[in-house]
Design a protein that fits this description.
Blueprint: E1 60-62, E2 64-65, E3 73-74, E4 79-80, E5 91-93, E6 102-106, E7 125-130, E8 136-147, E9 155-162, E10 171-182, E11 192-202, E12 208-214, E13 224-229, E14 259-260, E15 262-266, E16 271-278, E17 281-288, E18 296-299, E19 301-304, E20 312-314, E21 331-336, E22 343-352, E23 358-364, E24 376-380, E25 385-387, H1 396-399, E26 406-410, E27 413-417, E28 419-423, E29 425-432, E30 435-440, E31 448-449, E32 451-456, E33 461-467, E34 476-480, E35 490-491, E36 505-509, E37 512-516, E38 521-525, E39 528-531, E40 549-551, E41 554-559, E42 562-567, E43 570-575, E44 589-595, E45 600-605, E46 614-618, E47 623-628, E48 639-642, E49 649-655, E50 658-664, E51 684-686
Antiparallel strand pairs: 1-51, 2-3, 4-50, 5-15, 6-13, 7-12, 8-11, 8-13, 8-15, 9-10, 9-12, 13-14, 16-17, 17-18, 18-25, 19-24, 20-23, 21-22, 21-24, 22-23, 26-27, 27-29, 28-31, 29-30, 32-33, 33-34, 34-35, 36-37, 37-38, 38-39, 40-41, 41-42, 42-43, 44-45, 45-46, 46-47, 48-49, 49-50
C-alpha cells in the first residue's frame, strides 16, 4: 500500500488537441490524450494567478495592449507635451505623436557591424545644446536611448556649459553635480526614455550641452543610439549634434540636420491638472500645490479663417505666433461658419512675407466647401500647449488668482472654479464679425465654489456649483440655468446643506445630480439634497467617490483602493484591487476616470516616494495596464479621452507636472488596423500559472 515513485516514467504519446469529455471540461496533464495548453485570448485582463480559472486572463503586464481578442500588441507610444514655461519649467524636445525616430549610433573602435541608421559616426560623445529660460535646479535628464547587443560598457550622461558664443562652439566646463553613470543593463535594445537623476544649478538663458559618453573614456565598446528627429522645423531649437573620437577633436557634422530628443526636468511646484473639452478644443487647468494662481492651457490652437483656397486655410492674425512647420501632421477642424464640420490633415505651416504678413495651413485633401471669414477652426492632435488668453480685459491672469479646483464646458462658456476663496470665472471664445474674441465674463455677482457639474435639461444647460464660502463645514449647493456674464445662482433648500465632509465629486446620472463625500452619497431631490442608500460601512476615506463617472449605463465611483459599480440598489466591487491585486509599489487610489463606449480609463495615483503610478483600462471583462509613469513619485492624477477626426484619437494623462498623450485606434478596436498608430518599443506580459506551479 506504499507509493512507489519508480513506477513513474515518460511515455512517448503523440500530442493531439482532440479531447472527448462530458460535464465540465478542464485540462489536466494526467488525463489522456495529453493536451498542449495554449492561450490565445488576453481580453479578460490582469491579476489572475491560475490559468485554469479563466483562460482569457493573465497575471501582469507592462506597455502591452491586451484588449484585442486573440492578440498581444505593444502599447501605444507615450508622447510628452511641450508646455509653456509658466506651467512647467522643464526644457524638452520630444517626438510629436507618430513622428519617426532616426538613430545616431556611437561605437567604439573595435570591430564593426551592419548599421542600418542613416547617421553612422564612429565616436564616443553625442551632444545637444539647450538653454533654460529661467534659473532652475536640475532634477533629472531623460534621453531616448537604445543599445546595440554588443555594448558592454556603461555610459555617462553629463551637462556641460558652453565654452562661449553660440554653437557650434564646443562644450566647456562640466556642471557640478551633473554627471551620472547609466548601467548598460538599464538601456533597452529599442528606443525608450532612460532617466539620469542628478542635482545641479542651471542659470537663466545660459547655453548648456547634454553629453553622452562611454565609461571610462577610451574603453573599447560603446554602442548606444540617441533618438534624433528629422531636420528641425518650427519652434524647435536648431539641432546641434557634436561627437568626439578617442583622442580626437570635436566635430559637428549634423548640426543643421538633426536634433536629439531629450527632457531636462527641474524641481518645481507640484500641481494637479484637470482636462475639459470646450468648443472643439481640449483645455487643461492647473491647481498648484503651493496655493498660487492656476493657469488655463489650450492644446493646439483656434481662430477665425481669412480668405482661403481649396487646399489652404489662411489666418493673418497668426503671423507672429505660428512658425514654419509648427502644425504639420495635425488636424484642422472647422467648428462654425462656412464649411462647418469638415476636417483635414495639415501638411505644412507657412509664414507669408518678411516681415510676416499672414500665416497659412496647407491641407489635404482639398476642402469640399472652402472656408471664409465666417469660419471658426481648431487645430487638434498636437503635443504643444499654450496659455489661453483673452482679447479684452479683464484677462484670465487678472481674474484667476487661486488654484483651479474644477472646470467644465457649459454651452458658449467655460466655467472655472477656484475653491472657496475666489469667484467662479466665465470664459468665452467666439467669432465677432470677422475677428476672434476670447473674453472673461463679469465676476462681480459670482460666488466661490469648489466642484462643478453640467446637466442638459432639455431646453437649457443647468450648471451646478458646490462650495463652502464661509469655511464652516456648511457646503452650499447652487445652480444656474443660464450661464452668461451675469449668471444668477440659486441655492438648494435652506441655502446650505451640512455635508459633514468635503465633497469629492458632482456627477449627473439618470437625469439626477449625485454628490459624493468621503462618508456617504447625496442626491438632489426636489431641489433638496437627500442621502442615498449607498453604505460605505467603516471604509471612510478622503478619496471615496473622487471623480465619479458614468460608464455603460452604470455609475462608477472609487471606494478605498477599489472601484464600485452601481445601478439602483445593486453595488458591485470590480477591482482593480481584487484577485491578486496590484503588486506592491504600484498600488494607489483611482484619482480620475474617462469613459468611452467600450472602455473606462483610470488614473492610478501611487503617491509620492518610491511607488509608481499607472494608467489602467477596464473593458467590462477585466483590467489592463496601458502605461506607467516613467519615474516613481511622478503621480498620474488626471486622464481624458479626446476624439480626433481622422485619427488616431488621443488618451491624455498628467504625469507629475507634465502632460502625456497616447494614440488610440479611431476607426477600429484593433490598433494594428489603424495605420496612424505608433507603439512603445518594448513591453512584457506575465502569464498565469498553468499547473502545479509551472
Amino acid at each position: 500500500g506504499q507509493p512507489t515513485f519508480s513506477g513513474w516514467r515518460r511515455t512517448p504519446l503523440t500530442r493531439t488537441s482532440v479531447k472527448t469529455s462530458s460535464g465540465v471540461q478542464r485540462y489536466s496533464d494526467l488525463e489522456p490524450p495529453y493536451h498542449t495548453i495554449a492561450q490565445d485570448n488576453w481580453e479578460g485582463g490582469r491579476g489572475q494567478e491560475d490559468l485554469l480559472s479563466d483562460n482569457s486572463r493573465f497575471y501582469d503586464s507592462q506597455q502591452v495592449w491586451t484588449q484585442t481578442k486573440g492578440q498581444v500588441i505593444l502599447a501605444p507610444r507615450q508622447t510628452p507635451s511641450i508646455l509653456p514655461f509658466e506651467v512647467s519649467s522643464d526644457v524638452i524636445h520630444v517626438p510629436d505623436p507618430g513622428e519617426s525616430i532616426t538613430s545616431l549610433i556611437l561605437r567604439g573602435p573595435q570591430g564593426t557591424w551592419e548599421q542600418k541608421p542613416t547617421i553612422q559616426p564612429a565616436g564616443f560623445w553625442a551632444q545637444k545644446f539647450f538653454a533654460p529660460p529661467a534659473a532652475a535646479v536640475l532634477k533629472s535628464v531623460r534621453l531616448l536611448l537604445s543599445r546595440h547587443p554588443a555594448m558592454s560598457n556603461n555610459i555617462v550622461v553629463e551637462i556641460y556649459t558652453d565654452s562661449g558664443g553660440t554653437p557650434p562652439t564646443r562644450p566647456g566646463t562640466l556642471v557640478t553635480g551633473a554627471s551620472v553613470p547609466i548601467p548598460a543593463s538599464a538601456i533597452p535594445t529599442s528606443y525608450e526614455w532612460v532617466t539620469a537623476i542628478m542635482t545641479a544649478n542651471l542659470a537663466a538663458s545660459t547655453p548648456y550641452w547634454i553629453s553622452v559618453r562611454c565609461e571610462p573614456p577610451g574603453s573599447s565598446w560603446l554602442a548606444v543610439g540617441c533618438g534624433l528627429s528629422a531636420p528641425p522645423t518650427g519652434s524647435d531649437v536648431p539641432g546641434h549634434i557634436a561627437y568626439r573620437p578617442i583622442g580626437g577633436s570635436w566635430s559637428v557634422p549634423f548640426e543643421t540636420e538633426y536634433d536629439m530628443f531629450y527632457q531636462v526636468l527641474v524641481t518645481g511646484n507640484h500641481q494637479v491638472i484637470k482636462f475639459c473639452e470646450y468648443k472643439g478644443a481640449l483645455y487643461a487647468a492647473t491647481s498648484p500645490a503651493d496655493g498660487s494662481a492656476g493657469r488655463v492651457l489650450i492644446n493646439g490652437d483656434r481662430g477665425v479663417a481669412g480668405t482661403s483656397t481649396a487646399t489652404t486655410l489662411v489666418d493673418a492674425t497668426k503671423r507672429n505666433t505660428w512658425t514654419a512647420g509648427l502644425w504639420n501632421g495635425c488636424t484642422v477642424k472647422l467648428i462654425g461658419g462656412k464649411g462647418e464640420g469638415q476636417y483635414r490633415t495639415i501638411v505644412d505651416t507657412v509664414i507669408i512675407g518678411s516681415p510676416p504678413t499672414s500665416a497659412r495651413l496647407d491641407i489635404t485633401p482639398p476642402w469640399d466647401t472652402i472656408p471664409d471669414t465666417t469660419t471658426e477652426y481648431v487645430i487638434l492632435g498636437s503635443s504643444r500647449w499654450s496659455l489661453a488668453t483673452t482679447t479684452t480685459t479683464p484677462t484670465l491672469a487678472q481674474v484667476i488668482t487661486k488654484p483651479i479646483t474644477d472646470m467644465i464646458a457649459a454651452g458658449e462658456y467655460l466655467v472655472i472654479a477656484q475653491g472657496n476663496d475666489a469667484s467662479v470665472i466665465h470664459y468665452r471664445c467666439h467669432r465677432s464679425g470677422t475677428a476672434f474674441r476670447a473674453v472673461c465674463g463679469h465676476v462681480e455677482d459670482s460666488l466661490p465654489g469648489t466642484l462643478l457639474a453640467a446637466h442638459w435639461m432639455g431646453r437649457e444647460t443647468r450648471v451646478y456649483l458646490i462650495g463652502d464660502p464661509n469655511k464652516d463645514g456648511t457646503w452650499e449647493l447652487r445652480w444656474c440655468s443660464r450661464v452668461d456674464a451675469q449668471t444668477l445662482w440659486r441655492f438648494s433648500g435652506g441655502r446650505g446643506v451640512n455635508l459633514v465632509a468635503k465633497p469629492t465629486a458632482l456627477v449627473v446620472y439618470n437625469n439626477a445630480l449625485y454628490v459624493f463625500t468621503p462618508e456617504t452619497v447625496y442626491m438632489l431631490v426636489d431641489n433638496t439634497l437627500a442621502k442615498v442608500d449607498i453604505n460605505y460601512g467603516s471604509l471612510q476615506d478622503e478619496n471615496n467617490g473622487r471623480r465619479a463617472t458614468v460608464f455603460n449605463s452604470f455609475l462608477f465611483f472609487p471606494l478605498g483602493y477599489g472601484l464600485q459599480r452601481t445601478s439602483g440598489s445593486t453595488i458591485d466591487d470590480i477591482g482593480p484591487d481584487r484577485d491578486s491585486g496590484i503588486p506592491a509599489g504600484r498600488q494607489g487610489y483611482i484619482a480620475d476616470m474617462a469613459a468611452t463606449v467600450d472602455n473606462l480609463y483610470c488614473a492610478i495615483d501611487a503617491g509620492w516616494g518610491p511607488n509608481t503610478s499607472s494608467l489602467m483600462c477596464y473593458n467590462s471583462f477585466g483590467w489592463h495596464e496601458l502605461c506607467r509613469a516613467v519615474e516613481p513619485g511622478e503621480r498620474i492624477r488626471a486622464v481624458y479621452y479626446q476624439v480626433i477626426p481622422g485619427g488616431p484619437n488621443l488618451l491624455w494623462h498628467s504625469e507629475g507636472n507634465q502632460i502625456v498623450s497616447c494614440p488610440m485606434p479611431s476607426k477600429t478596436g484593433n490598433p494594428y488596423k489603424d495605420p496612424k498608430m505608433s507603439y512603445a518599443s518594448t513591453g512584457y506580459l506575465i502569464t498565469s500559472w498553468i499547473d502545479i506551479g509551472m
